[in-house]
Amino acid sequence: MRNDASPPPLFSIVTVVLDDREGLRRTRSSLRRQSFRDFAWIVVDGGSEDGTRDDIVRFAPEIAWWRSGPDQGLYDAMNIGMAAATGDYLLFLNAGDELASPDSLGRLAAEIRASASPDFLYCDALERTSGGTLLLKPARSHRTVWYGMFTHHQAMVYRRLAVADLRYDLSFTVGADYAFTISALSVNPRVVRLREPLVIFAAGGLSYVMHSVGRRDQTRIRRRYLRLSVISCFLIMVVQYLAMLTRRGFPVFYEIYRCRRMYE
């Protein structure tokens, strides 16, 4: 817990959780392993009933700010966490997600210093398969944002003051992080890409479970934020649908196409 007299941390790490006690513990363990300690952990619990809140109370000395109570879902909770943040940079690491290595934050901090405090950074990500293998999923260029999220949202880092006027749009059930990222890129030209994994992404997230809703959300976002034509949006949605079928029906082919290295 940071006291009010402490200078703002470099990172505010926002964790959203709902009835995922084990996931929260994995995320906490990942943060405890970090050699770089200039961060503040913010936890927003949607009113868990599985004992998660008891753990949050127990972890309270490690948490800069937390709340537990009903909210309007994932993106509302992320807005709540962002409003409570005081760090120079925002990283959204939800329950079950982990940082890729004990020096992940340290290497990120070094890049921020070397790049003179950029507005937005993004990295590669690791995905854990059902068999426990870690796949490296390289980020695409941020210039391909018209196609969709170019890396996992948990592998994106925002300078807090650069996105101070932005919020996650609750009208999008699945795609609010996509709309937020487009908005952030539109007002913040200083972008840095790190070609190394920042996070281990917890599989089975909202975008995977509700992929059809996510595609519809993305179409609305492309029309509203990027002004793409109906035909362009339709073609992108078809390609994404085929990619999802490949991922679910032929995971080996998906891994060869999208992932470059495998970790045991």
Account of the 3D structure:
With 264 residues, the protein is an alpha/beta fold. The chain has a single domain, classed as Alpha-Beta Complex (Spore Coat Polysaccharide Biosynthesis Protein SpsA, Chain A), CATH 3.90.550.10. Helices cover 38% and strands 21% of the residues. It has nine helices and ten strands. Strands 1, 2, 3, 4, 5, 6, 7, 8, 9 and 10 form a ten-stranded mixed beta sheet that branches. A hairpin with a 5-residue loop joins strand 6 and strand 7 (134-137). The longest helix has 20 residues, at 230-249.
Topology at a glance:
Layout: E1 11-17, H1 21-32, E2 39-45, H2 52-58, E3 65-68, H3 74-84, E4 89-92, E5 98-99, H4 104-114, E6 120-128, E7 134-137, E8 156-159, H5 176-187, E9 191-201, H6 206-209, H7 211-226, H8 230-249, H9 251-258, E10 261-263
Specify the CATH architecture: Alpha-Beta Complex
Structural domain count:
1
- What's the gyration radius in Å? 18 Å
Please report the first level of CATH classification, the CATH class. Alpha Beta
CATH homologous superfamily heading: Spore Coat Polysaccharide Biosynthesis Protein SpsA, Chain A
In CATH, the topology is named Spore Coat Polysaccharide Biosynthesis Protein SpsA, Chain A
The shape, in one word, is globular
**Please, how many helices?**
9
The average pLDDT value, as a whole number, equals: 90
Percent in strands: 15-25%
Helix content percent band: 25-40%
Q: Which structural class best describes the helix and strand composition?
A: alpha/beta
What separation lies between the terminal Cα atoms? 36 Å
Order of helices and strands: EHEHEHEEHEEEHEHHHHE
- Count every beta strand, where a strand is a DSSP E run of 2 or more residues: 10
Poorly predicted regions are none
